[in-house]
Specification:
With 735 residues, the chain is α+β, with helices and mostly antiparallel strands. It is built from 21 helices and 18 strands. The strands form 3 sheets. It has a 9-stranded mixed β-sheet. A 7-stranded mixed β-sheet has the order 1-7-2-3-6-4-5. The protein has a two-stranded antiparallel ribbon with strand order 13-14.
Length: 735
């Protein structure tokens, strides 16, 4: 009981500490934010902050030009501001400079020191303070007033999204965890009840017997809670060194708070006391019935009331999905919807003993099979014992279905509106070799060059101008939704009905494009043709609104038009976006890349959310499996006498194994079917109230069905050790 409870407390501490870790990230990020003003005075210290994507991460550089005012006001993590040519970097940037020297181009100067932990949101952050002179940032720099805000401009997880994560973790972890701790508190329930009944028959009062039981369960639970907190401390130290994908933290961020310690040390023993008191009530009230194995009492029906209530709430919200005004998650719905889902899961667990009892009684009366009769009579006598074994696995399937809904909701919220993702890079910063390597990156399916015609600042206000795309017909087809009428090797006019055209550019007009490679004042002249390509671009897209298609053969080999940008396109899948950005950073670390329509901070948030959800699912799997292992082991110990007696009467070992398997698999199968049905209803309820574009997800049903079959197979295999190879008559001598 203590060891099993320690595992549950460790998982509980991890769930309770996740918000604390995120708050620590945001707190340090807010404390280092510069407070600046555009009103610059003589001697003021100037700051210029740049945040650029480096791979799939954000690389933040703060350029500092020290003056006579606020020059000694250092941000958290530094003891002084950098002087001209000095650079303070985070440990991750320090390693990056060693592994990839080309990154030095982003940090002009020599490394002066490292930024302390107080100045970094997390250990893997790419952050640097770069000292410079006033003339270099005079145009855009702002005067420094101080450091620190009460809020983080880019929180690790948006507050609205954090609500979804808390609900998901509560459903994935806390509900199975409560059942698991209850299972641990009821270990050896049959033998304990016999001992308590013996104490009552020896003359101990009811209250005295309850105190004995409370002392056993509470002390074991308390010892398990202390052990679990120690396990969490070790886990925190290990995870801060290894980290999780998309989420890193310092050991102090995950340190146990007083609230977490209080919940674990008070809540878990209190739960054990309540469960132990409820399970020992019959032994203290009617000890003779326990010692003589009296006819069992029918399980209570109030668990079914919880299930019906929860299903009523969930089905009501699902029904609104068929109307023109589906329910939302605002107002009372924010509490009623989660309550309905939790009541459904809890009611499902509490109703299983009643279902098992009713089914066992009916089958035992009608079957002619010895194996099925023995199995069902045992389930009829002890329906709660069987349910202790299967409850964790049933909840695992229910939670997996609900987690699928959370994943769908996150995908709807964070998925780009376009199925493709474009990346725009200044062409002048790339060599021909780098262009070739970028086009060959995994995940890049097409590339092109975009440029805008040159306009004379002193010329006419109505001088025509237009944007052009340098690409083949095949490349254009991969850059846009649809194109029609394209002919390779010809300059052609582009027409997108959903976008505006160039200012006054008509067929026959000549558009000049600046070409520094051609010499001073040289231009490339392209005439707007009459031949037209009708196309439809994605939104957002780097070629949206382009007016002219120029084949690569129409430009000189060394042409570098002014302001031209090299465009890559690929899938908008989050994993693919991260892969392409990391590939770009490997080819050209110092270039500026603009993912069209993508916020790097948002991309990092998605990685954090997926990590947290994955951690919740892993913990749910661990808890469900642990509950099954603990229950099976305890059940094997409690059943040794009964198995021995039936075996001595003449039952074969093969028959006994079949009996034990049927006892578990039959009620488990019923529970899994109910878990699938109620889980899909809970998932749809969550999607309807969350405003998702998908309400009824059937794609995940086969996966969940296969998972349920796998759970049943694992449970069947787990029952086989219940029948031992050796028969020990001593186990039944005293009976």
């Amino acid at each position: 009981m203590a060891v099993g409870g320690s595992l549950g407390v460790c998982c509980l501490a991890l769930v309770l500490t996740v918000p604390q870790i995120l708050d620590a990230h945001d707190g340090r990020d807010a404390a280092r934010q510069p407070r600046t003003t555009s009103a610059r005075t003589a001697g003021s210290t100037l700051l210029l902050q740049r945040t650029d994507p480096y791979g799939s991460k954000a690389f933040t550089r703060v350029f500092v030009a020290k003056g006579t005012k606020n020059a000694d006001d250092a941000p958290p993590g530094l003891t002084q501001l950098p002087g001209p040519g000095e650079v303070f970097v985070s440990p991750r940037v320090h390693d990056l400079l060693r592994d990839r020297p080309a990154v030095k181009g982003l940090l002009p100067g020599h490394e002066k020191g490292l930024i302390g932990a107080r100045g970094l949101a997390h250990p893997d952050e790419l952050f640097a303070y770069v000292g410079t002179t006033r003339d270099r940032i005079a145009g855009e720099g702002r005067a420094l007033k101080g450091w620190g805000y009460s809020y983080a401009p880019f929180p690790a997880v948006e507050p609205s999204t954090l609500t979804y994560i808390r609900f998901a973790l509560g459903s994935l972890v806390l509900l199975p965890l409560g059942i698991f701790l209850s299972v641990c508190a009821r270990l050896s329930a049959a033998s304990r009840n016999r001992r308590l009944a013996s104490l009552r028959l020896l003359g101990l009062s009811t209250k005295g017997t309850q105190r004995v039981n409370a002392a056993e369960t509470v002390m074991a639970a308390l010892f398990g809670a202390v052990l679990g907190l120690g396990e969490y401390e070790v886990l925190n130290q290990v995870m801060t060194r290894t980290g999780l994908p998309g989420l890193r933290w310092y050991p102090a961020d995950g340190a146990l708070s007083a609230t977490t310690v209080a919940i674990c040390l008070i809540g878990c023993p209190l739960l054990a006391w309540y469960v132990g008191r409820a399970s020992a009530r019959d032994a203290t009230a009617n000890p003779l019935a326990v010692r003589r194995t009296a006819t069992p009492r029918r399980p209570d029906k109030w668990g079914g009331l919880l299930l019906v209530t929860g299903l009523g709430i969930v089905a009501g919200y699902c029904a609104t999905g068929f109307t023109d005004h589906p329910a939302d998650s605002l107002g009372p719905n924010a509490l009623l919807m989660p309550a309905g889902i939790l009541l459904t899961g809890l009611g499902l667990v509490l109703t299983l003993p009643l279902i098992s009892y009713s089914l066992a009684r009916r089958l035992a009366r009608t079957t002619q099979s010895l194996t099925l009769n023995l199995a069902m009579r045992r389930n009829e006598v002890e329906p709660g014992s069987t349910m202790r074994v299967v409850t964790g696995l049933v909840l695992l399937v229910f939670s997996a279905s609900l987690a699928q809904g959370v994943l769908i909701q996150l995908e709807q919220v964070t998925r780009p509106s376009s199925p493709v993702q474009d990346y725009s890079i200044p062409l002048s910063t790339l060599t021909a070799r780098q262009q070739h390597d970028l086009a060959a990156l995994p995940g890049v399916r097409a590339h092109a060059v975009t440029m805008e015609s040159w306009t004379d600042p002193d010329g006419s206000a109505d001088q025509p101008w237009a944007s052009a795309v340098v690409a083949t017909c095949g490349q254009l087809a991969k850059l846009v939704k649809h194109s029609e009428g394209c002919v390779d090797g010809k300059v052609m006019r582009l027409s997108d009905p959903n976008a505006g055209t160039g200012q006054g550019a008509r067929p026959g007009d000549t558009l000049p494009f600046g070409n520094p490679k051609g010499g001073p004042g040289k231009t490339l002249s392209i005439e707007v043709p009459h031949d037209t390509i009708t196309y439809s671009a994605y939104d957002p897209s780097a070629v949206h609104g382009a007016d002219v298609l120029v084949p690569p053969s129409a430009l000189p080999a060394a042409a570098r038009p002014e302001g031209a940008r090299y465009v890559l396109t690929g899938s908008s899948d989050h994993d693919q976006v991260r892969k392409v950005l990391d590939g770009v950073a490997a080819v050209a670390p110092t270039i500026e890349v603009e993912p069209i329509g993508v916020n790097i901070e948002g991309l990092q948030q998605i990685a954090v959310l997926e990590t947290l959800l994955a951690v919740g699912m892993v913990m749910g799997l661990v808890i469900g499996t642990a509950a099954f292992v603990v229950s099976v082991t305890d059940r094997a110990v409690e059943r040794r006498a009964q198995v021995t007696a039936v075996t001595l009467i003449g039952a074969r070992a093969r028959t006994m194994r079949a009996v034990q398997c049927v006892q578990v698999v039959l009620p488990l199968s019923i529970g899994l079917v109910l878990a699938l049905a109620t889980g899909k209803l809970a998932e749809s309820c969550y999607l309807v109230t969350g405003g998702s574009a998908v309400y009824w997800d059937s794609a995940g049903v086969p996966v969940l069905a296969v998972a349920a079959v796998g759970v049943a197979v694992v449970a069947a295999i787990g029952t086989l050790p219940l029948v031992g190879r050796r028969i020990d008559p001593e186990l039944i001598r005293r009976d």
